[in-house]
Amino acid sequence: MATTQSNPQERTARELLTQGRPLFLGVDGEGAAHYWDSYEFAVAVVEADSEAEKVVLAETPFETLAQWCEYTRGERGWDIGPHVGGSLVGDLVRGVEA
User: Contact, 81 vs 27, CB < 8 A?
Assistant: First the structure.
């Protein structure tokens, strides 16, 4: 039986967040991985050296995950992602609204 190993940044995010498998959002321009926890409405930002912080959106000026992603794009840029609000999500929303 094969098992999947999480990378060190994901393991750190799991320690910070309530959700067992937080959603990987992407890697910003400074190499920090961002993980989303929909239970806490929080983002874990894990630097390459494993320094990490949990950002609860209610404690910021950002009301939505999309706003957080745009803020990150402006401050640090994205090297990978963000993997949120992509075409699959848009397609599902349009399908439900039809």
Answer: yes
Strand order in the sheet with 52-56: 52-56, 42-46, 33-37, 23-28, 78-80
The H or E element that residue 45 is part of is strand 42-46
Please list the ranges in the chain whose pLDDT falls under 50: 1-2, 87-95
DSSP states of 1-37: ---PPPPHHHHHHHHH-SSSSPEEEEEETTS-EEEEE
- Residues 6 or more apart in contact with residue 25 via CB below 8 angstroms: 33, 34, 35, 36, 43, 65, 69, 81, 82, 83, 84
- Model pLDDT for residues 61-85, shown as the tens digit of each residue: 999 999 999 999 999 999 998 887 5
- Residue 97 CB contacts under 8 Å (≥ 6 apart), including other chains: none
Neighbours of 66 (CB within 10 A): 12
Indicate the residue type of 81.
Answer: G
